[in-house]
Task: inverse folding
């Protein structure tokens, strides 16, 4: 093996990376691990430049969290030659992470300065990306960072004022700070997953189709996405724009299109507009020939209702009623899926420290019936005979499953660049798990992913904030979507 002279070896570091580049990566590693988004597009950029091999790319993407993916990548880069650093910076720029590229290229470690790169000033490189999907109250409870002018000699500089800041009537709301410290960086946040939906295999379909809903039509069904992003400042002055909502609607459009649904997306509807849209959707005759239906509602909300752009509320119970067995007979005995991305209250889930003690066991005696005596005694023989002659009846509401972004009374989290936590995880789970997992189990997995997420916004009420999703179900069978499989008859 050819050996470089000692001086050249020092200069090139491991397998050829320049020493100053290695120092820059090392000094900025904490910031990079917190803020860098390592997705497939990012990795493909490095593979195109022959910086990463296929096995290396796979070892990075298989990591369960963004933090671990970033750390794995940073541990490999110094060993990938003198072009690795420049290719890494190009990948950052290509994936709209210019602020991190600038942090690296302007690092004092590369310029020969002694100042720590974390103290270097980064001017307006990062947009604020944290928000809740409930309205910011006039009390200032969830008021964002603001920049406050402070005289410094002859110059005026801006500093981040502490939170929360009360808002006052008659004053123009202060702009949110555009600093790295105000960025919401969940420990496992990522840009929306765009990997193709994995297909169901014929063997899996044949072994599971008998005990599950009939999901063989093409298209599988109709899907409606209502996304309220911008609200009327006159009619709804307390409802902020839902930055990132447009990301969610596009994510849902793509994933359900790949799952063979005909997707309709409607943006910025008033409460009466949402009602009319849902009624029209429920009356579509095509429901008769398809296997299922999907409804996604993305807006600000409260417990049991979501806001229209006019500040008026649409009751979720009315939405479910519009698709029940009485009001939507075309969908009787067919699965109806709902996904609600909206706050269900104002409380911020700050989380609790995990206890090392034993887990609490379930309470005994919870199996009693809450109502009805239809099963007591031997019953009435005459009623049994009549039941056999009557037409089969259905309950008013059945065959529904609804995923909620948050628990009752709590706020739901949304990243203004990557979209909401809940929709991100639903998208990822559908793409990778729908091939062999029924929807109830998929939403259990979504719950687990949401449980592990944590907000990163030092100095704000959102720092280390938590969220917990949940779902309700009246499904009567397993609901497999059987993606990309169409049986031949």
Result:
């Amino acid at each position: 093996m050819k050996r470089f002279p000692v001086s050249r070896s020092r200069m090139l570091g491991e397998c050829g990376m320049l020493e100053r580049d290695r120092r820059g990566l090392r000094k900025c590693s904490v910031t990079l691990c917190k803020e860098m988004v390592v997705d497939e597009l990012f990795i493909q950029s490095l593979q195109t430049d022959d910086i990463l091999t296929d096995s290396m790319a796979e070892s990075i993407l298989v990591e369960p969290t963004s933090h671990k993916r970033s750390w794995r990548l940073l541990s490999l880069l110094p060993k990938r030659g003198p072009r690795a650093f420049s290719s890494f910076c190009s990948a950052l720029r290509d994936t709209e992470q210019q602020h991190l590229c600038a942090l690296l290229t302007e690092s004092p470690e590369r310029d020969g300065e002694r100042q720590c790169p974390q103290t270097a000033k980064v001017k307006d490189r990062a947009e604020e990306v944290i928000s809740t999907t409930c309205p910011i109250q006039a009390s200032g409870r969830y008021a964002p960072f603001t920049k406050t002018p402070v005289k410094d000699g002859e110059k005026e500089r801006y500093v981040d004022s502490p939170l929360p800041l009360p808002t006052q009537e008659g004053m123009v709301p202060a702009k949110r700070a555009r600093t790295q410290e105000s960025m919401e960086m969940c420990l496992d946040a990522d840009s929306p997953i765009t990997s193709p939906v994995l297909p169901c295999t014929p063997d899996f379909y044949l072994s599971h189709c008998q005990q599950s809903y009939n999901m063989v039509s093409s298209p599988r069904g109709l899907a409606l996405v209502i996304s309220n992003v911008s609200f009327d400042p006159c009619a709804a002055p307390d409802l902020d724009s839902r930055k990132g909502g447009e990301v969610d609607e596009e994510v849902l459009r793509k994933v359900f299109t790949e799952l063979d649904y005909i997707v309709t997306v409607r943006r910025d509807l008033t409460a009466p507009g949402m009602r009319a849209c849902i009624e029209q959707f429920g009356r579509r005759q095509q429901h008769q020939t398809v296997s299922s239906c999907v409804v996604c509602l993305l807006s600000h909300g409260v417990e049991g209702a979501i806001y229209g752009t006019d500040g008026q509320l649409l009751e979720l119970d009315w939405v479910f009623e519009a698709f029940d067995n009485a009001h939507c007979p075309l969908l009787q005995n067919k699965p109806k899926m709902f996904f609600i991305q909206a706050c269900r209250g104002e409380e911020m889930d700050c989380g609790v420290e995990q206890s090392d003690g034993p887990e609490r066991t379930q309470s005994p005696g919870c199996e009693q019936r809450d109502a009805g005596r239809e099963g007591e005694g031997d019953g009435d023989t005459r009623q049994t005979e009549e039941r056999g002659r009557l037409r089969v009846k259905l309950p008013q509401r059945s065959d529904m499953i609804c995923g909620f972004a948050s628990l009752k009374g709590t706020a739901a989290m949304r990243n203004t660049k990557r979209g909401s936590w809940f929709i991100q995880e639903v998208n990822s789970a559908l793409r990778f798990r729908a091939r062999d997992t029924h929807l109830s189990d998929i939403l259990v997995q979504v719950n687990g992913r949401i449980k592990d997420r944590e907000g990163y916004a030092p100095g704000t009420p959102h720092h280390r904030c938590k969220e917990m999703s949940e779902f309700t179900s009246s499904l009567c069978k397993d609901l497999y979507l059987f993606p990309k499989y169409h049986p031949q008859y």
In short: The first helix runs from residue 6 to 12. Residues 1-15, 111-190, 357-379, 384-388 have pLDDT under 50 and may be disordered.
